[in-house]
């Protein structure tokens, strides 16, 4: 049975900086020694709205990067889209604000033991955690190529410094306002063949993850995807963030994306049964 | 330092603290144990277990509402055999006191579950969650049907014998809660758990369809607290000797004292743990401090305090 991330701890953290990056906010948060246990793919659960808030549930955010700063100690970076009330509240927190935060939570991206060619595919701000992952993969000698996609240019998240760790970066928008016109999944079959891709890492909307899986299905390519399901708690007790996943025997059960995910083996997720009664 | 007797009883079961988890809000216990020792609580009330493993309802299973949330899980769980084999030994190893919650689709299923629990050691009490659809009666929820509620509790009582206390968990979605409460007490319940979630619905404005996969869901959180306080008050008024495990939106020591004063001998914390995994410990500490600050030397003196005539003070 899967268990909660053994390093998860509830801490009072501090916002070190909050910058607007296009349609998103980049928050740097001091989490002290907890940063050492945060890996690409892990997420945090943050209490939002303050003491008298009518928002009672924690909000989950993917950790996009981890660093150790001599001034602030361990910090994590979150890329947040101010869409709902909770994320708007978080994006309104200034430098010095304190946050009740649980980190790290969930599974991390698996890093290959051999330096194999890998492809990173991000949709919208789902690309954020891929840049931290690219740095780790690059440092292990993997050739890293990246595809980013969104409906329109303003929804692409691609920081300049993030490109250092990647061999190539291609951008696709559905309206053609940035990069090439089309879907981010369009070039994947060709890239798998040309670059001899061993692993695809993906993060973004469920429809994108599902589309990637239909490409890697019946191939040797491993698909590690970070799934997205709405969560009430982030720590495994509410049972709301479940997905249908098959085990080695083919038995399908509803697994929690906060405990058994967010990073899952895409070939085990029963994409056609998501949102259906088993 | 003031001394406070913080212990409580439900039937013949004794607990060092009145603060319990709420069924379905602590999973197997392993997750919360990452944040505090389960032994520090009054008891862990486990997720309602059924005879067979269940996958539950499709997603979306959750919608946040003002000061509350709707859930539609559909009693996903491992089934009673796996639960007894894996979850109970874990809780016992953590020295947690255990209240096992059971749920069934037929009167017979409840009795079968009770039979399996009879020989399991380490259990303090059995909570009978009767807020389930009765497949033998057009899916009418047992807890909304006084006769079906009685039959379930009667069957469990006969199967369990006299040892383990039975806590009947009732739904607030009824016209006459007191009559249902009296019925299950007559049938053999030693205590009552009040309240289960309140049935609700959210429409997704993008699709203009019900948001939850199960269409309707159970509303929990501070939004329902006044309903819980009212339910506990009314039932305690009618049956002051029957212990009540009170719950519904309790998220602070003040909230806990409110429902205790209304008549609860114990308090279950559910949704508050979703927002804060250490809520149980925070509430427990706050309640202790509050009781001491108000001059109580025993939790039991505060139970049902709101029913006293003002000249008794």
UniProtKB/TrEMBL annotation, chain A:
Classification via Gene3D superfamilies: Dihydroorotate dehydrogenase, electron transfer subunit, Nucleotide-binding domain of ferredoxin-NADP reductase (FNR) module, Translation factors
Pfam families xrefs: DHODB_Fe-S_bind
GO molecular function annotation: 2 iron, 2 sulfur cluster binding; flavin adenine dinucleotide binding; metal ion binding
InterPro entries for the chain: Cyt_c3_hydrogenase_gsu, Dihydroorotate_DH_ele_sf, Dihydroorotate_DH_Fe-S-bd, FNR_nucleotide-bd, PyrK_electron_transfer, Riboflavin_synthase-like_b-brl
Swiss-Prot/TrEMBL GO biological process terms: pyrimidine nucleotide biosynthetic process
Assigned keywords, A-Z: 2Fe-2S, Electron transport, FAD, Flavoprotein, Iron, Iron-sulfur, Metal-binding, Transport
Keyword Amino-acid biosynthesis: no
Cofactor: [2Fe-2S] cluster
Metal-binding in keyword set: yes
Domain Dihydroorotate dehydrogenase electron transfer subunit iron-sulphur cluster binding: start-end pairs: 228-269
Entry's family note: Belongs to the PyrK family.
PANTHER family named in the record: DIHYDROOROTATE DEHYDROGENASE B (NAD(+)), ELECTRON TRANSFER SUBUNIT (PTHR43513), DIHYDROOROTATE DEHYDROGENASE B (NAD(+)), ELECTRON TRANSFER SUBUNIT-RELATED (PTHR43513:SF3)
Protein's name in the database: Unannotated protein
UniProtKB/TrEMBL annotation, chain B:
Annotated ranges, domain Dihydroorotate dehydrogenase catalytic: 8-291
One Gene Ontology molecular-function label: dihydroorotate dehydrogenase activity
Keyword match Oxidoreductase: yes
Names of the cofactor(s): FMN
GO biological process, one term: 'de novo' UMP biosynthetic process
Name of the featured protein: Unannotated protein
Annotated SUPFAM superfamilies: FMN-linked oxidoreductases
A GO term from the CC aspect: cytoplasm
Protein's organism: freshwater metagenome
PROSITE patterns membership: DHODEHASE_2 (PS00912)
Protein family membership: Belongs to the dihydroorotate dehydrogenase family. Type 1 subfamily.
Localization per record: Cytoplasm
Pathway membership: Pyrimidine metabolism; UMP biosynthesis via de novo pathway
Protein's UniProt keywords contain RNA-binding: no
Keywords from the named record: Cytoplasm, Flavoprotein, FMN, Oxidoreductase, Pyrimidine biosynthesis
InterPro entries: Aldolase_TIM, DHO_dehydrogenase, DHOD_1B, Dihydroorotate_DH_1, Dihydroorotate_DH_1_2, Dihydroorotate_DH_cat, Dihydroorotate_DH_CS, Dihydroorotate_DH_I
């Amino acid at each position: 049975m899967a268990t909660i991330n053994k390093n998860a701890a509830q801490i009072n953290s501090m916002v070190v900086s909050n910058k607007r990056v296009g349609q998103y906010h980049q928050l740097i948060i001091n989490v002290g020694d907890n940063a050492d246990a945060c890996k690409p793919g892990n997420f945090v659960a943050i209490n939002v709205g303050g003491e008298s808030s009518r928002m009672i549930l924690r909000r989950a955010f993917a950790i996009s990067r981890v660093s150790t700063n001599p001034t602030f100690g361990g910090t994590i970076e979150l890329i947040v889209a101010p869409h709902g009330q909770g994320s708007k509240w978080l994006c309104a927190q200034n430098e010095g604000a304190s946050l009740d935060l649980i980190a790290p939570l969930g599974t991390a991206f698996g890093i290959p033991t051999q330096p194999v060619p890998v492809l990173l595919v991000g949709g919208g701000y789902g690309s954020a955690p891929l840049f931290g992952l690219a740095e780790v993969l690059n440092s292990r000698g993997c050739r890293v190529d990246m595809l980013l996609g969104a409906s329109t240019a303003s929804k692409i998240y691609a920081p300049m410094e993030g490109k250092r760790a990647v061999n190539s970066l291609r951008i696709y928008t559905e309206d053609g306002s940035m990069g090439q016109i089309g879907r981010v999944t369009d070039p994947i079959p060709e890239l798998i063949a040309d670059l001899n891709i061993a692993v695809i890492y993906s993060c973004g909307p469920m429809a994108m993850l599902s589309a990637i899986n239909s490409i890697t299905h019946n191939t040797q390519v491993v698909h590690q995807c970070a799934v997205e399901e709405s969560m009430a708690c982030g720590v495994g007790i509410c049972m709301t963030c479940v997905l249908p996943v098959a085990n080695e025997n083919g038995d399908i059960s509803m697994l929690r994306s906060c405990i058994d995910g967010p990073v899952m083996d895409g070939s085990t997720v029963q994409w056609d049964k998501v949102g259906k009664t088993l | 330092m003031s001394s406070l007797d913080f212990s409580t009883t439900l039937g013949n079961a004794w607990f060092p603290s009145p603060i319990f988890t709420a069924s379905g809000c602590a999973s197997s216990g392993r997750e919360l144990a990452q944040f505090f020792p389960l032994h520090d609580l009054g008891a862990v009330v486990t997720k309602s277990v059924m005879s067979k493993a269940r996958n539950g309802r499709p997603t979306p299973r959750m919608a946040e509402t003002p000061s509350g949330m709707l859930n539609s899980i559909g009693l996903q769980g491992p089934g009673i055999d796996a639960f007894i084999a894996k979850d109970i030994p874990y809780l016992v190893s953590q020295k947690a006191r255990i209240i096992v919650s059971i749920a069934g689709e037929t009167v017979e299923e409840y009795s079968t579950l009770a039979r399996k629990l009879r020989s399991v050691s380490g259990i303090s009490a059995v909570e009978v969650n009767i807020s389930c659809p009765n497949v033998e009666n057009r899916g009418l929820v047992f807890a909304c049907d006084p006769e079906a509620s009685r039959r379930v509790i009667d069957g469990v009582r006969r199967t369990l014998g006299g040892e383990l206390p039975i806590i009947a968990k009732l739904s607030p979605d009824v016209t006459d809660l007191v009559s249902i409460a009296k019925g299950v007490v007559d049938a053999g319940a030693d205590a009552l758990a009040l309240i289960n979630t309140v049935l609700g619905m959210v429409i997704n404005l993008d699709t203009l369809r019900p948001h939850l996969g199960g269409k309707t869901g159970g509303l929990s959180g501070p939004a329902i607290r006044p309903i819980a306080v009212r339910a506990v008050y009314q039932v305690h008024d009618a049956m002051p000797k029957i212990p009540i495990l009170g719950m519904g939106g309790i998220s602070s020591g003040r909230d806990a004292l409110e429902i205790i004063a209304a008549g609860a001998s114990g308090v279950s914390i559910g949704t508050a743990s979703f927002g804060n995994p250490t809520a149980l410990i925070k509430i427990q500490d706050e309640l202790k401090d509050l009781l001491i600050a108000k001059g109580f030397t025993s939790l039991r003196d505060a139970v049902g305090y709101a029913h006293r005539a003002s000249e008794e003070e």
